[in-house]
Amino acid sequence: MYGFDYQRPASRDAAKAAATGADTRYLAGGQSLIQAMRLRLSQSERLVDLGGIADLKAIKVDASGVTIGAMATHASVAGNADVRRAIPALAELAGGIGDPMVRNMGTIGGSIANADPAACYPAGVLGLNATIHTDRRTIAADAFFTGLYETALQPGELITAVSFPTAQKAAYVKYKQPASRFALVGVFVAQTAGGVRVAVTGAKGHVFRATQIEEALARSFTADAAKAVKMPTTDVNADLHGSAEYRAAMISVMASRAVAAALAR
Ligand SMILES: Cc1cc2nc3c(=O)[nH]c(=O)nc-3n(C[C@H](O)[C@H](O)[C@H](O)COP(=O)(O)OP(=O)(O)OC[C@H]3O[C@@H](n4cnc5c(N)ncnc54)[C@H](O)[C@@H]3O)c2cc1C
To answer: How high is the pLDDT of residue 22?
Structure first.
């Protein structure tokens, strides 16, 4: 690990004031960032720890949906009774991330800023058509995830919260890597006010919408309709865990299971 300066401000304004310089990074739970720094894959001159800013941990639920503060941990989302009632699929997604230590340290802001191609939250954000709130603007889910570990965030831009509208039906199912529980293929299916949305993680360089399955489910919201779609292998990941053909097939299988789970609520 390279040396760095560490600051722990108590407010958003102090955090923004501290986050000057191209090599400054916000620190959430450190579940990805500290590991990358230890391996010298990432070098930061300064870490601005967000852990002392209480209002970034807030979770609010009202009739329109759920707003989760950037520093809310996966465990706090999974265990929140109001989230479980309003959008049970979201609470279940958070409860299926990693292991207890990861869920107690990892945050929604860190997860989506990191934009790991196999992470679960990006699928929930895209599937539910969420809005990302930053210190500068709001960003629609469709515009947020731009590439492998890349997002629409500008240098120094602070995610403050993520708003999820409620869905008529929704579920997330992943075929998980057994050691880490990251998604080899994960699919979030939602019947939203704007139509059916199907977001896929783990299968390509970044989360994406499976429009072929969305169209099939718009005609018939059934597990069989999702399973019948043959997904193309274009740009689909291939590694020691599975070929592109295998992962493409798993997208339809996971989507059909997610539809079945959504219908069973
Ligand atoms: C063993 C293990 C298993 C895991 N399994 C899963 C899994 O099954 N599914 C899954 O989805 N994830 C999984 N994860 C990832 C984990 O859930 C965390 O969400 C992820 O590592 C990010 O961690 P963090 O929130 O601590 O952010 P950090 O590591 O602190 O930060 C990550 C990045 O986000 C930036 N950042 C953090 N907060 C903000 C903010 N508010 N605004 C702007 N930028 C910010 C940081 O500067 C950094 O670049 C796993 C991680 C580990 C270590």
So the answer is: 80
Residue nearest to ligand 1 atom 4, measured at CA: 98
**How is domain 169-263 classified at the CATH fold level?**
Enolase-like; domain 1 (3.30.390)
Specify the pLDDT at position 2: 84
Order of all β-strands in the sheet with 138-140: 59-62, 65-69, 159-165, 131-134, 138-140
CA of 77 to the centre of ligand 1 (A): 15
Q: Which residues of 45-62 are buried (b: 16+ CB within 10 A; e: fewer)?
A: ebbbbbbebeebbebebe
Query: Which residues does 246 contact at the CB level (< 8 Å), separation at least 6?
Result: none
How many other β-carbons are positioned within 10 Å of the β-carbon of residue 121?
A: 30
Q: What is the CA(33)–ligand 1 centre distance, in A?
A: 7
Q: Is 29 in the pocket of ligand 1 (CB under 6 A)?
A: yes
Whole-number pLDDT of residue 54: 96
* Cα first-last separation, the chain: 47
Q: Is 187 in the pocket of ligand 1 (CB under 6 A)?
A: no
Q: Whose CA is nearest to atom 49 of ligand 1?
A: 114
- Give dist(CA 245, CA 136) in Å, integer: 41
Evaluate whether the domain defined by 5-165 bears CATH number 3.30.465.10. yes
Question: Looking at residue 230, what is its pLDDT?
Answer: 98
Domain ranges of the chain: 5-165, 169-263
Is residue 231 scored above 90 in pLDDT?
yes
**In angstroms, what is the span from residue 131 Cα to ligand 1's centroid?**
19
